[in-house]
Amino acid sequence: MSDENQSRLERIERLLESTAVVTTSHSDRLNTLENFGIRAGEVIEQNAADINRLTDRLNQVTDRIDRNAAAIDRLVETVVDDRERFAEHQRTTEAALAKIDRVLDYLIKRDTTDNDD
Predict the structure, then answer these.
(1) Distance CA 26, CA 101 (A)
(2) Average of per-residue pLDDT across 77-88
(3) Where are the alpha helices (DSSP H) in the chain?
């Protein structure tokens, strides 16, 4: 083999070795990226599950808030109704007491008039 061919062959061998090193490095990087992708997928799945669980919990809390708001509305209506009934009771009681006062005044006057005679 000629020196020129030998020299070419050595250059080709060095290029092949260099290519092998670069290929190995790229393969390692691809493996690392693949592992990272797998891990990222697992994290995304876990996050999605967490989001779904939290969404369910949020819906439960929202439903409970809605029920509590409805209960508060009913209580407010009850208080308003009770106030109206109390006011009506107070008016009728005051009217009845005023009538009793007039009857008592009449009876006292009548009694006093009867005793004066």
Answers:
(1) 108
(2) 97
(3) 3-116
The predicted pLDDT at position 22 comes to 87
Two tokens at 1?
């083999």
- Determine the Cα–Cα distance for residues 59 and 6; give it in Å rounded to an integer: 77
Indicate the pTM of the whole model: 0.54
Interatomic CA distance for residues 17 and 2, integer angstroms: 22
Q: Name the residue with tokens 């005044």.
A: 105
At residue 114, the pLDDT reads 73
| 9 Cβ contact list (under 8 Å, min separation 6) | 1
Mean pLDDT, residues 78-82: 97
**Number of residues assigned to the chain:** 117
Inter-CA distances, 115 with 35, 90, 111, Å: 116, 37, 6
Residue whose structure tokens are 């209960």:
71
Residue that the structure tokens 């008016």 belong to: 91
